[in-house]
Amino acid sequence: MKRLGVLTGGGDAPGLNAVIRAITKTAIREYGIEVIGFRDGFKGVMEDQRMLLTESAVSGILPRGGTILGTTNRDNPFKYQVAEGRFEDRSEQCINKIKEHADALIVIGGDGSLSIAHELSLKGLPVVGCPKTIDNDLAVGQAKTFGFDTAYAFATEALDRLHSTAESHHRILVLEVMGRYAGHIALHAGLAGGADIILIPELPFTYDKIIAKIQDRLQQNKRFSLVVVAEGAKQLGGEMVIQKMIAGSDDPIRLGGIGETVAGQLEKLTGIESRVTVLGHLQRGGSPTPYDRILATRYGVAATDLAAQGQFGYVVSLDGENIKPIHLSQVAHGIRKVDIEGELLKAARKIGISFGD
Ligand code: F6P
């Protein structure tokens, strides 16, 4: 192999630059391969926007958030927007364009981009995937995705800060965190930040159960409560709120507002002053934690090793202590939910955290 292509797709996550840096360094130093970065995900492939990734191009980017290549949720080559409201399958063209500039492609992405990578690999493109999402909900076995550690560390800090003001004002403070389909950020941050109630998509809640926990605290003379709610959490029997569709994407859901609803309802039902904080994209920005920098670096090195050895159609994934390849077909279109029978969730219950279920 002479030239390796790389792109970052979907929502950004802290650690993307660390992966790009690791791929570039490994390819050049270990294998003498040139690295071509496509800009803004598959959009850069289709629109011939790319850059040569040299060691100096990736110098200094390890601690930087975002991605120097840019990214977008749009521009799926299988549903490519050719005019307002008109989409066509341009996957053949996409493969030809990639092959013009690179012998193989590393896709650093979440479920959407890795599903596209899988479909392209079925059509003959040599691809390796690298798993990314702050939500930690990719179907990569028990492996963590990079970006998650940074996101929940930030949410934990937010809870620490909310704690003192909640206590001073005797309020219920609700923190809404990301997690459309799975509650990993909410569960981890809730545990690390000492939340009293954690609401996740996997366990539909009732206000009665949440209020029972708040009453219990009042009886212990604890006049404040901290609630963490994942954006995809829903009331038992309720629906998730779909706010808009993304053109050309299968990904229709943009949630938000559940935190406000919960805070409003709790104030109404308990009479206790309640406020909401929505963390939003603050969770996706900023410098990756040391854990995420190392994980991202390992994923970048492992993905490059696979590509250089001609092993395509895989996603790299941390299995225990070691990085192992997982078939792209296993990861594409899969979501890993919080294990509601798992030790972590049970531990949370044992120390008195309520899930409102
Ligand atoms: O998948 C990552 C994620 O951060 C979700 O948790 C969140 O719902 C979504 O992206 C937000 O996406 P966007 O930036 O496109 O609104």
Count of beta strands: 13
From the alpha carbons, calculate the radius of gyration and give it in angstroms: 22 Å
Characterize the largest beta sheet: strand count, sense, and whether it forms a barrel.
7 strands, mixed
| Total helical elements | 11
Distance between the termini: 54 Å
Shape: elongated
Q: For this structure, what is the CATH class of the largest domain?
A: Alpha Beta
User: Going across the major beta sheet, what is the strand order?
Assistant: 3-2-1-6-7-12-13
Strand content: 15-25%
Indicate the percent of residues in helices. 25-40%
At the third CATH level, what is the topology name of the largest domain?
Rossmann fold
Low-confidence stretches: none
* Helix and strand run: EHEHEEEHEHEHEHEHEHEHEEHH
The name of the CATH architecture of the largest domain is 3-Layer(aba) Sandwich
Would you write up a description of this structure?
The protein has 357 residues and is of the alpha/beta class. It has helices spanning 16-31, 42-46, 91-101, 111-122, 148-169, 184-192, 207-219, 258-270, 290-308, 328-331, 343-350; strands at 3-8, 34-38, 50-53, 80-83, 86-88, 104-109, 127-131, 172-177, 197-199, 225-230, 274-278, 314-319, 322-327. Helix content is 37%, strand content 18%. The protein has a seven-stranded mixed sheet, with helices on both faces. Helix 1 (16-31) packs across helix 9 (290-308) and helix 5 (148-169) crosses helix 6 (184-192). The structure holds 6-O-phosphono-beta-D-fructofuranose.
